[in-house]
Task: structure prediction
Amino acid sequence: MIRKCLFPVAGYGTRFLPATKAMPKEMLPVVNKPLVQYGVEEAISAGLNQIGFVTGRGKRAINDHFDVSYELEHQIAGSEKEKYLSCVREVIQNATFSSTRQPEMKGLGHAILVGELLIGYEPFGVILADDLCLVEEGEDSVMTQLVKIYRRFGKSVVAITEVPREDVSKFGVIAAEEIEPGIYTVSDMVEKPSPEDAPSNLAIIGRYVLTPDIFEALRHTEPGKNGEIQITDALLKLARKGRVLAYKFRGLRFDCGSIEGYVAATNYVYQNIYSKNPK
Result:
């Protein structure tokens, strides 16, 4: 049974300054919903309704968003504006939320290790909210696709996509053998390699299903570049034991950690989703 999803949301969002000086980047709206809500909705769609946030200073707005706002709801009760809260009310009703704080920004691996308190010893999902993943209506969400792979094989699963060779230095990149269409056994993982050193152009994006042995691997992972603990380094330890799969997901991915990706996501959602069903 997999029921929990971890959201590392402690980052500073420096690429969006000054907008993120006093507001979490995960609360930036794509049309009318914050990025983090898209991620939580995706987790719930996959049956992961116990949501854990690894937060930092200045991130209170995330917890507040997934809570009842009595003053606001009282002011708009019975009015036309009340309908605009329906989607977040549905999220709140269908999930539970907890959080812990990452005291230092020491990398994604460190953030996930901090989240062990919220997860315990069980498999769990990880969603990076600034990777916005969208699928066609009626299709499985990306996290649902990963959960189905996990249920078949019982191993950690990372979502991957093909990227241009010149962009591999922005990602963790895998070497792998395809065992079924779109499913790979991972043999090597390199964090942000140069194009000439990359083992492939298959890049890991911000969706994972992890087995609980990842925590022990993270505890024994030395900090790398900039003193950060990388999740790819910890996963490599499991991959060398044949315990990590990669899955080339179906759907669209927008890098909303960049200005260009955020604008592209906003345009796409407005034109293809919101304009057809405003809510």
Remarks:
- The CA atoms of residues 142 and 250 lie 7 Å apart.
- The chain has a mean pLDDT of 92.
- The chain has one domain: 4-276.
- The first helix runs from residue 35 to 45.
